């Protein structure tokens, strides 16, 4: 299933910006370097968009692309991934790359 998701916050700049609209493929195979939607085990219910760095403890270590923002696995630990961000459809349509 493909889901539309809106980006909130600056943690993925320059790859994604606040207000970007993306499509998430729920059944995608996740590999290191993919941009994903995940949920930190220490913060259930909060979905985030981050980059998958490595598989760890049955989940994924996620980090944002913006080095000035550390609201990622460095602060919250391992996350469970819900899907891979495949396409930004607004404001500048583009496929996402690793």
TrEMBL record:
InterPro entries reported for this sequence: LexA/Signal_pep-like_sf, Mito_IMP1_subunit, Peptidase_S24_S26A/B/C, Peptidase_S26
Pfam families xref list: Peptidase_S24 (PF00717)
Subcellular localization: Endomembrane system
GO MF annotation terms: serine-type endopeptidase activity
GO-annotated cellular components: endomembrane system
Residue ranges of domain Peptidase S24/S26A/S26B/S26C in the record: 6-71
Annotated keywords: Hydrolase, Membrane
Protein name as annotated: Phage repressor protein C with HTH and peptisase S24 domain
Organism expressing this protein natively: Catenuloplanes atrovinosus
